[in-house]
Amino acid sequence: MRSGNSSANGGLAGAVPVTELRVIDSHTEGEPTRVVIEGGPELGNGPLPERLERFAKDYDHLRRQIILEPRGSDALVGALLCQPTRNDCVAGVVFFNNTGYLGMCGHGTIGVAATLAYLGRIVPGTFKLETPVGIVSVDLVDANTATVENVLSYRHRKDVTVNVPELGEITGDIAWGGNWFFLVKGAPCPLTLEHERKLTDAALRIQSALRDQGITGANNGDIDHIEFFADAHAGDADARNFVLCPGGAYDRSPCGTGTSAKLACLAADGVLAPETDWVQESVIGSRFVARYVAAEDGRIVPIVTGRAFVCGETTLICQTGDPFANGIVP
Ligand code: PYC
Prior knowledge:
alpha+beta, Diaminopimelate Epimerase, Chain A, domain 1, eight-stranded mixed β-barrel, 5 helices, 19% helix, globular
């Protein structure tokens, strides 16, 4: 098998050598994850944030190769497994998507767990993964069910108003759940798939208005995920959400980091007690069951359970001369 390292040429790549990458595809409550198991870039042994930077600087063409059409799709989240720096972790993982890299990914972590179980590398029980934003603990309940103890999460600001062209004043909370979220109070229309375009359009406008108006998370963190909420459709769920991911796709799952950000806001408002189940329904009707443990300084440890199913085992091939070896770039 050839190495996954090819030219960084993103356009007409006449000189791109043949490359092969082995991946396992899964979906977590409908949201796809592609785990790279062979042929990924060699990122060294440094801290995970440095490896993420190196991936972005030297191998971004591989991110595009793995995620973008014609080999992938905008909804896909990639997971590159690597050696952890800590010996209490079974693996390090760097998540990436159609526009860049993610600090953490809840649905992706559940996808990684189901993939490692499928490969026979783990059995039910607890293990740890190292991500660029911290250690996450995962309890593999069975081959398809995992509970993720996410990184510390918190609400950064409450009731922030942003002026959004065509939508007017929109108010929401800014919270960290492993990524930065703007959790909008209310929604522009019902949270159903038939309104997907309208929801995506509204969320993209909010995302860009936040950037234009310099509204950020802590340490100038880019708020790249936008979340709308409404009543759940199922009688035994607590709320439905629609989550816009950084690259413009919507999350088919209830979004693990988004559910964590929601729990942080519920905890900060004192409306959900620690260790109480919160059933978060996605826009496609799938669900995560979540709860939290209180931590210091008003922060929380979110605990999110969901299911993932392996749905493909593929070798991605880029032949010499393929003009779209590194994806279709707008
Ligand atoms: O589950 O955390 C998540 C996630 C982030 C982006 C897509 N899914």
